[in-house]
Amino acid sequence: MFSDLSLIALLGTLAGAALVILVCGLRMTSLADRLADRTGLGEAMVGAVLLGAATSLSGTVVSATAALDGRASLAFSNGIGGIAAQTAFLALADLLHRRANLEHAGADLANVFQGTLLMLMLALPLVAYTLPGFSFWAVHPASVLLVVIYAGGVYAANRVRENPMWRPVRTKETREDTPDEEDDEPRSTAALFLLFLGLMGLMGLAGWTLSNVAGALTDRYDLNASVVGALLTAVITSLPELVTTLAAVRRGALQMAIGGIIGGNTFDVLFLTVSDVGYRDGSIYHAITRGDLFWLTVGMTMTAILTLGMLYRQRLGPAGIGMESVLILLVYAGAIVAQVL
Predict the structure, then answer these.
(1) What angle do CA 206, 207, 213 make, to 5 degrees?
(2) Residue 136, helix vs strand vs coil
(3) Prediction pTM value
(4) Separation between Cα atoms, residue 330 and residue 37, nearest integer Å
(5) 175: which DSSP letter?
(6) Statement: 2-166+189-340 belongs to CATH 3.40.1170.60
(7) Whole-angstrom Cα distance, residue 255 to residue 49?
(8) How many other C-beta atoms can be found within 10 angstroms of the C-beta atom of residue 64?
(9) What are the residue boundaries of the structural domains of the chain, listed by start?
(10) Closest CA to 133 of 269, 267, 268, 279
(11) Among positive and negative, which fits the CA dihedral 114, 45, 273, 290?
């Protein structure tokens, strides 16, 4: 169906899908903030789990659709490229919060824990790549292990939030995660959840459309699937993270802004599990290219810098933002140049 469309029609469809993803992601931010207050789970946990997973839905659909079509490189690079893009978005959000370094002001132990969890999960695909191409029902054991680690990590992160063994030092720039004093939303919590799920459904449909358009463009113009996945579909499906992060910072929900990015990135690693299940020609880790591995290492590097920044907690860097944000943007820009040239 999409392969028969003209270039203008494909680009128009691409823009339409991006707009749906953008609008739904923006509405989800305010809903997630209210749900965090009403459920008592806190901004960091709701941002990492609920908002992070929801805004990643369109990307999940892109990877799953690509894998089912046998496009291993597109499926893999879409998820991994999104991690790099979303981490760069957090550095851009640091520019918006001028009072202090975002990672300083939004200090939260749950986010630090999620950052280390993400690095562990990103290391597993590299391990799988170096091992023999063993699979069971065309699924590599590493894909199952990713789900187990993610589930255990979410449980542990909640325990860390409820019973922390250490706390970040509070300074005058630190923004506390406190519920809003007034809740003028007349709808019930259940109604807010249903609206949230409806927006997720629209984003999933937009993701399916985006995957098919990307596949048609790749085939028609013989484009590099790794570049298309990491720099086109990944960036478009990451637009909700950009919008929700900037909106959360403007609302003063700093822990949610950081948690939404890190939690979304952690969830995005599960794209690889979904892709491995959908890819029926064996282990997806042995069907990818060096370009895909390149974006995996870029994501690990940027996550390491971000986590170190959350631990170091620089108040304000020489560029008006945290030094980790400067380094993250430099790494991402360098990665784009290296991949395109």
Answers:
(1) 90
(2) strand
(3) 0.84
(4) 36
(5) P
(6) no
(7) 13
(8) 22
(9) 2-166+189-340
(10) 279
(11) negative
